[in-house]
From TrEMBL:
Annotated source species: Methanoculleus receptaculi
Keyword Lyase: yes
Domain of life (superkingdom): Archaea
Protein's name according to its UniProt entry: 3-isopropylmalate dehydratase large subunit
Native organism taxonomy: Archaea, Methanobacteriati, Methanobacteriota, Stenosarchaea group, Methanomicrobia
Quaternary data: Heterodimer of LeuC and LeuD.
Free-text remark on how the cofactor is bound: Binds 1 [4Fe-4S] cluster per subunit.
Name of the gene encoding the protein in the UniProt record: leuC
EC number: 4.2.1.33
């Protein structure tokens, strides 16, 4: 009788286990540090390069000569070591993982904290540091302490303008930024069924904002049909009776549009309470909310209208961008006056495109609003896509009525 994390890691909570990993990836930022650590360790050959991956997403295309040189070095390393490389323009590592690479039951590690996103497929997926990643690349495996699990028990259905992002902000606010440290969050209950795969990815993505190692859903029919579109065959995972450390009940019928206010992601208000807050920028994208369903929802709201404030839209991957072009929603977004950027992290971490100036205020669909993250002196509010869309049209924080 095990939690899903216990089942995948093959031991009860609290145990330490050594496991091979199915996928171990790094991006352009942490890849540079991983390579540096490998060189310091004197590692020359990597045993299973096919299970490793480099994905360029954080600063793409390169913003300075120094960045370009580091990326060129990493590219050359991938070539000689046989590591598959997804180069600039492919999209955010977590989105690339979710497009047919991750399967139920896998153990996935990534040198990025939001690796927990892949738990949406019933995989145990967690972020590690670059030095740990170097050791994993050199050996093919690592140790884990099997986490205790907090169940997030979902009931009911989302209604009105509420989105999975509002559910994520709800559990982050209720658990707090350290409330689930070293735990796994397992999404359970009848309410799970009504949440799309894109929505499940959003929910798992924010698990790390509570300190959790992983966020995880059982693979069900929806998971299997999503994966089938990528040519991946998988079996469902049937939940067992198991012991959770605690259970957090969330009734989806009660969820309303929410906003995390500066500078903590667990400081959450109803959008209604802070409506009218003046904005300098709206940012739609990231590994939290840059997927096709998000862009479609955004386009539906801004179609035929004009945004009243600088609005940046960065699709999470090439596949998302391509689909948005083919279905025509990208034209709606551009015609509404938005700036569309290349697939990748974009302004999320304040490294390039879309950096905020001193005192500027941004409403973003990302997962973090730490002080100075998008630029020194900038202020970040976090919301759903629908809230971002109506706010972009209003030039100030506004409350969406229908998603
Ligand atoms: C740059 C990277 C190490 C970092 C992370 O791991 O989360 C980034 O993706 C972020 O969101 O802050
Ligand atoms: S989109 Fe933002 S949160 Fe996600 S991996 Fe990139 S920088 Fe990190």
């Amino acid at each position: 009788m095990s939690t899903l994390s216990e089942r995948i890691l093959g031991a009860p909570a609290g145990a330490y286990v050594d496991r091979d990993v199915d996928i171990a990836f790094a991006h352009d930022g942490t890849g540079v540090l991983t390579l540096e650590a490998l060189r310091e360790m004197g590692v020359e050959r990597l045993p299973r390069p096919g299970r490793l991956r480099l994905i360029f997403d954080h600063i793409v295309p390169a913003n300075t000569g120094t960045t370009a040189t580091l990326q060129a070095e990493l590219r050359a390393f991938a070539r000689v070591s046989g590591i598959p490389l997804s180069d600039a323009g492919c999209g955010i590592c977590h989105q690339v993982m979710s497009e047919g690479l991750v399967r139920p039951g896998m153990i996935v590690v990534g040198a990025d904290s939001h690796t927990c996103t892949a738990g949406a497929f019933g995989a145990f997926a967690t972020g590690v540091g670059a030095t740990d990643m170097a050791a994993i690349w050199a050996s093919g495996g690592t140790w884990f302490r099997v986490p205790e699990t907090i169940a997030i028990n979902l009931s009911g259905n989302l209604s009105g303008a509420a989105e999975p992002k509002d559910v994520a902000l709800t559990y982050v606010a209720r658990l707090g930024m350290e409330g689930a440290t070293y735990r796994a969050l397992e999404f359970a209950g009848e309410g799970v069924r009504g949440i799309s795969m894109d929505g499940r990815l959003t929910l798992c993505n924010m698990a790390v904002e509570t300190g959790a190692k992983a966020g995880i859903f059982y693979a069900d029919d929806l998971t299997l049909s999503y994966l089938a579109d990528y040519g991946v065959k998988a079996s469902p995972q049937v939940p067992e009776e198991c012991r959770y450390e605690r259970t957090l009940d969330i009734d989806l019928d009660d969820i309303v549009p929410l906003v995390a206010v500066p500078h903590r992601v667990d400081t959450v208000r109803e959008a209604e309470e802070i409506a009218g807050t003046r904005l300098d920028q709206v940012f739609v994208g990231t590994c939290t909310n840059g997927r096709y369903e998000d862009l479609e929802r955004f386009a539906r709201i801004v179609r035929g209208k004009k945004v009243a404030v600088r609005t940046l839209v960065f699709p999470a991957s090439r596949a998302v961008l391509s689909r948005a072009i083919k279905t025509g929603i990208l034209a709606d977004i551009v015609d509404a006056g938005c700036v569309v950027g290349p697939p990748g992290c974009g302004p999320c971490l304040g490294a390039h495109a879309g950096v905020l100036g001193e005192g500027e205020v941004c409403l973003s669909t990302a997962n973090r609003n730490f002080k100075n993250r998008m630029g020194v002196g900038g202020e970040i509010y976090l919301s759903s896509v629908a809230t971002a869309a109506v706010s972009a049209l209003a030039g100030e924080i506004a409350v969406p009525e229908v998603a």
